């Protein structure tokens, strides 16, 4: 699978030295290490090519020098693969990385894993060759010869929850790609089909009565089968499942055609939902499984895993995300949800997910909300005092939308209003709290109908690795009238009442059309007055 911390073949877990967060400037390290890793990877690929040719042309002799030489080269190549994998793991565990770097590292790591598998096939083949004698006829060679090979998953969209009868990989995600790796001394006779099977995580049994669409694909000329149209007909009752791939391979060796069955390791886990309402529960199970191979991990590594789960959940392209979780967002989560603890335990995760799962589901599932979020029109991860700091010196009617810290998945709006008696501008807060699911108004309509909200603040949506814009105020890039940015999302006609002037200071709840979806609460959930 693509996940660095759980690839068993690379036994590296460098102890993370815990420097203070602000000192983790990732840029210089990444800039020097990534090209090095990339260079080593190119060298590995070239050497595997040379090995393939040399093993294919090898003539067994009683003298074992040739075999020794091949084995030495295989061992050296394996060391290179392990070096590169360890470097990647070290980066992933020690630095808060931008999503495009995480994605590049994960892809490289998976690629190294594929190369390691190929190398192991060659090692078995060379081991077998060492027992052959130069005196053997082809017939004798055939008698003792074995087909060496395996299937390996080179790309996949998992772990993730997916809905029954929908494609397993969304447009922004990798499809599942399965690669056939085989020995240098055998050639594949086309065509070869690869079939997917469902395996239940808990009892390792195959889901025999499970119907899938798009579960059979042919290998292309690069020995790759691409599964981009897999669909499942029903849910897995919130249980984790994995895909495993099998191929009946026809091959030619010493002029003779035979066949052999190869299979892959299982994919990363996923859950098939019957309903979108199961999403945050399912994603929580998968996230936890993905992050914790032991009871606890470092906060840094947790952040990097969180970033990738967030990118996938919000259906963004990991190479060019519109709005990653910024350094500011991650530091906010670090402070507010983890009390700045350097280690995250499974119990910490459960508590965090009760809050964050609902937040993420809201961004993911409510269409206009997601679009406003990606454009930077919703601040989201900001505390109440920080929101007040941002609104200082802003005019009457300026507002920002944030996630309530106390009521998971609910929006709190901080807005400036004129105090009638002092004639000074004050910041008020309230919770958007629908009494009843059916009455929920889409957030753009809600904002359009309420006269207290006039100007929306827009913020930067980049990762900001160097924390150049560390203070929330520095993240603001503009203020516009709400209709400029939100009108395209309104489903109802705009009532212009009270939009032009500042004098109109209805408190929320006075106007009939809003009272059913809005109550004023302070953050403790007590009713607010005035």
UniProtKB/TrEMBL annotation:
Q: Which GO terms describe its cellular component?
A: nucleus
Q: Name one GO molecular function term.
A: DNA-binding transcription factor activity
Q: Does the keyword Transcription regulation apply?
A: yes
Protein's cellular compartments: Nucleus
Could you tell me which InterPro entries the record lists for this protein?
EF-hand_12 (IPR041604), p53-like_TF_DNA-bd_sf (IPR008967), RHD_DNA_bind_dom_sf (IPR037059), SH2 (IPR000980), SH2_dom_sf (IPR036860), STAT (IPR001217), STAT_TF_CC (IPR015988), STAT_TF_homologue_CC (IPR015347)
Q: Which GO terms describe its biological process?
A: signal transduction
Domain SH2: start-end pairs: 373-459
Give the PROSITE patterns listed for this entry: SH2
Q: What SUPFAM superfamilies would the database entry show? A: p53-like transcription factors, SH2 domain, STAT
Which controlled-vocabulary keywords does the entry list? DNA-binding, Nucleus, SH2 domain, Transcription, Transcription regulation
Q: Is Transcription regulation tagged as a keyword?
A: yes
Q: PANTHER family attached here?
A: SIGNAL TRANSDUCER AND ACTIVATOR OF TRANSCRIPTION
**Which family does the record claim for this protein?**
Belongs to the transcription factor STAT family.
Write the protein's name: SH2 domain-containing protein
